[in-house]
Amino acid sequence: MEGAALTRRGLLVGIGAVGGAGAMYAAMGALGLAPSEQDKQFAAPRPGDFSLSGKGAAKVVILGAGVAGLTAAYELGKAGYDCTLLEAREKAGGRNLTLRGGDRLAELNGPAQDVRFGEGVYFNAGPGRIAPWMVTLDYCRELGIPIETFVNNNAAAYVNTNGRTVRARTARADMYGYIAELLAKATNVGALDRAISKADQETLLEFLRRFGDLGPKHRYEGSERRGFTKYPAIDTGTPLDAPGTLHQVLAAGTGRAITNDFGYEQATPMFQPVGGMDAIVTKLTEAVGRDRIRTGAKVTKITNLADGVEVAWEGGGLKADYCIAALPPHILAKIPHNLGAQVTTALGTPIPVAAGKIGLEYGRRWWELEDRIYGGVTETDLDITHIWYPSHGYHSERGVLVGYYNTERNAELYAALAPEDRRRRALTQGKKIHGDKYRQNLLSSVSIAWDRQPHIQGGWVRWPDFDSSFTFLQRPAGRVYFAGDWLTHLIAWQAGAMESARSVVTQLHQRVLQSA
Amino acid sequence: MEGAALTRRGLLVGIGAVGGAGAMYAAMGALGLAPSEQDKQFAAPRPGDFSLSGKGAAKVVILGAGVAGLTAAYELGKAGYDCTLLEAREKAGGRNLTLRGGDRLAELNGPAQDVRFGEGVYFNAGPGRIAPWMVTLDYCRELGIPIETFVNNNAAAYVNTNGRTVRARTARADMYGYIAELLAKATNVGALDRAISKADQETLLEFLRRFGDLGPKHRYEGSERRGFTKYPAIDTGTPLDAPGTLHQVLAAGTGRAITNDFGYEQATPMFQPVGGMDAIVTKLTEAVGRDRIRTGAKVTKITNLADGVEVAWEGGGLKADYCIAALPPHILAKIPHNLGAQVTTALGTPIPVAAGKIGLEYGRRWWELEDRIYGGVTETDLDITHIWYPSHGYHSERGVLVGYYNTERNAELYAALAPEDRRRRALTQGKKIHGDKYRQNLLSSVSIAWDRQPHIQGGWVRWPDFDSSFTFLQRPAGRVYFAGDWLTHLIAWQAGAMESARSVVTQLHQRVLQSA
């Protein structure tokens, strides 16, 4: 319960909801909020905002119809801004890309792939999950996009490290068991007497018994939490073999895998739109107006003027009052502009990160039928890094596994292969975890190497530091604003693109309202 | 990977699927499987089984159309057994009870409640979740019941203990942080030198840094895993206040809550049928045939005969070849029978356990809108014990919270209250966690005290020991078989009822096949 802060924010959001941005900014002043706190609030522009100021909505050209560009156009559109989106790719959405049967995926320096999935099956080639605190979920609600759970943590999934495969529940039970035993031992020999009181030691020991499922004398001797060969029913079931020694458990190297969901970005539960992540693109596009998006328009020049911005693309050009450049920085950096050397330097600072995924379509959901894995992720130190099991379509005929979701060097390794070799390698690796069935019942596959996607050329970017280049580009250069997940601390998340768009929309709208 | 065991079992299941139970039993003999291993397998009876033996399906009377009785009838029906189910209540399902607007819930020694929920809203008054390894999920698949995730663990839900409320993610981060710090400290002062090698200590310390998100010198100084007042976006966000001291964190008493999903029964993910748990009852009933279920039939006498079983109820009676008594033991114990003193004693051994739930219908899903809690459970040491947030209907208008789900003394406390007083008390308690909004926007409520449900009179039972009475009743008394979750190690789970039914069906079918 965050108490006072929540209440004040709640009040402001309420004022914003009822009275629009104008009323909210006024209220923020009345409450004595520092400007920096304004970032915490977002009130969408409304037509009514102009009635106070006597100003009118401006004309805005938006470069890139990814999630950032679409969100900016959507929010500005609420107040009647005249937005045009220029998208170099054949369709809107950017990295929010859901592939289905009949789609064709082009690749730089590689062959195009035809997606051969059957009816009702899809593959989120880009973002696949949403944390509940993220603004992405607000857009799902506002746009009427039904959501469902994305299983990000599954006790029945596997951990495959150092060549051994165990269920996640087993790996966790063993690590927790031994940790609890060791700490109980240290407590009982008096090693913590200077650190904590005897009474606290008793509380700690009680917790450790529970945490590690310790036996008599605080020993870890295995636990039913590890799972069973045959689960209890008529009888008490058949437990797994006894756990390895502490040395063996430590050597297994499962630590990274079993702490994977501890962070605020990956914690359980997570969510996904029903039917594919691109529902967000579809609904934003509908709300913005399909006719406002010009696809196949590769921008060639950005010119900031005293009274507007001129943007040229191959085969056209337009002038608008403002521009929002919602392209990846390394793509934007290649476009000639007159925004100054500091912009050029700043755009050149973030480093593209490779990321890749493969969708493996099976005609039989063996992971449910045989492994009892319903959604979730198997973690491995193999170069495939992860296997994702689908969190939807349970018990249906077909299903698409994500056979790898890797980054950096592993992604580059797969990117360098032809699509059929990526599949072959992914199957060889997955077989080490799942056995022969991993190569059986495979119907089709499609792989994406984000660093080879036209006009995107990277999974996301990494800032060496969140330095002055980062904050510099959070503000406009003349009449040109910059937007994208790469300008937030939510890089690689759609929420970052949306938050960045909101920040730019707020700045731009305030400027229009305050302009002479 | 369970290797050999899985393979042999897979083979048998395959034989069972293709050749039916008769072929499978033969194969088990050929493989030299001990009889005890037969419990691990289930092959449903088939009409073809009789063609080998020259026998025919028998007539079976089943007492109780709860999940055990329905499952037995369903499986026997596959081979053409002539089953009649006698159900004392007004409808089938037993404790698998989903309440919707228009339903009326009777109560022993208490007023009936009219359920006033709006359209599309429901309340699983009995079982609410299914673990993926449970046979319940197989029935969902076989019966074509769509399933969805039941969120059983939510980092954003609260832990309310000793009068304080924190997010589960915060409680967990603090406990893990301090545990890791303490164990690192013990390691670094050499307290574990005799227990583990120096090399293993290094591996352990690396894990502890990750596990506790420790800072320099292995100190826990808080972590972004605790959550934020404002999550990162344009800036790095506003973290929560610093964690309490180790003493404060231990004194907070969150240990039980944060280990709640460690066991194999409660581990993430769990599942529920789409639209309400009673989809299982509906589909089983359809498969069995509605006309085979006689409701309002309270059994008054069970007579085992040399050539069959006679069952009498208020207003009728019938004779069948076999009987399956699928009633709670304490209900069955009250019915006169000629099955002998050992049966009477055994039926009197398990002790009914009180359990209660309240469904609170709100006109606004404030837990999603304001608390960003999408499904999951808040754990508390208040007498309400749990608050469940719905794992479906996200972002819709209405929603039903489970305002308490408690057992034993807490359940008895609420059971003794009138329905409006249960609601009042539940709201008073929930307000301590959620504040005033917990009492606002409430549209209606309905509460169940399972110990006061006619013909059920308990949430489930507890065996003082799983002693000879337990195993005795797993075998027939004459021609009378006993079935129910109470005869398994999955008490209080539908899977227990189903596994028990399968065991009885297997025994009965083998007997019929082998009978002279």
Q: What does it look like?
A:
2 copies of one chain form a homodimer. Chain A contains 16 helices and 25 strands. Chain A is α+β, with helices and mostly antiparallel strands and about 525 residues long. The first copy, chain A, has a 5-stranded parallel sheet, with helices on one face. A 4-stranded mixed sheet of chain A has the order 9-8-20-21. In chain A, strands 14-15-16 form a 3-stranded antiparallel sheet, with no helix packed on it. The longest helix of chain A is centred in the N-terminal third of the chain and has 27 residues, at about 5-30. Chain A is globular and about 80 Å long. Residues about 1-20 and about 20-40 of chain A have low confidence and may be disordered. Chains A and B meet through helix 1, helix 4, strand 7, helix 5 and helix 6 of A and helix 1, helix 5, strand 7, helix 6 and helix 7 of B. Chains A, B: Its EC number is 1.4.3.4. Chains A, B: This is Monoamine oxidase. Chains A, B: It holds the Pfam family Amino_oxidase.
Descriptive terms for the model:
five-stranded parallel sheet, 16 helices, four-stranded mixed sheet, 34% helix, 25 strands, 516 residues, homodimer, 22% strand, alpha+beta, disordered N terminus
Helix share of residues of chain A?
A: 25-40%
| Rg over alpha carbons of chain A | 26 Å
Q: Summarize the main sheet of chain A.
A: 5 strands, parallel
Most residues in contact, chain pair and counts: A-B, 99 and 101 residues
Name the average pLDDT of chain A. Answer: 93
- The number of helical runs of chain A is 16
GO molecular function (chains A, B): monoamine oxidase activity
Transmembrane segments (chains A, B): 12-34
EC number (chains A, B): 1.4.3.4
Keywords (chains A, B): Membrane, Oxidoreductase, Transmembrane, Transmembrane helix
